[in-house]
Design goal:
By secondary structure, the protein is mainly alpha-helical. It has two domains: 1-47, no CATH class; 49-90, no CATH class. Helices cover 43% and strands 8% of the residues. It is built from three helices and two strands; from the N terminus they run ββααα. The chain has a two-stranded antiparallel ribbon with strand order 1-2. A hairpin with a 3-residue loop joins strand 1 and strand 2. The longest helix is centred in the middle third of the chain and has 24 residues, at 21-44. The radius of gyration is 14 Å and the shape is globular. It starts with 5 loop residues before the first strand and ends in a 7-residue tail after the last helix.
Length: 95
């Protein structure tokens, strides 16, 4: 996708993009931590992704703390939870 900055390659690893190496490394660390959390959560039971309202609430908190959130740059008019990380992956290959 044109708005993605992280790609998971099956049996290969992760590729991240940013304007500098530090930013790309930070994104790699985020993907790694998120993946570990998903693996641990999946061992407990089913994963319930956040719905669009719950996701927007979290992203609004992020903006309120002074962090930039590109998904809400237009005020969240076109925000959809369909770009959530879980919905992008092929779930049949997940542990």
């Amino acid at each position: 996708m044109k708005d993605s900055n992280c790609i998971l390659l099956q049996n290969h690893g992760t590729v991240t993009f940013d304007k500098d190496l530090d930013g790309a490394y930070y994104k790699l660390e985020i993907v790694d931590a998120y993946s570990r959390i998903l693996i641990l959560a999946k061992q407990i039971g089913n994963i319930r992704p956040l719905d669009a309202a719950e996701m927007k609430e979290l992203l609004d908190l992020k903006c309120a703390s002074g962090l930039e959130e590109p998904r809400l740059k237009d005020g969240g008019k076109n925000f959809t939870c369909n770009t959530d990380f879980i919905s992008r992956g092929d779930r049949q290959h997940w542990p």
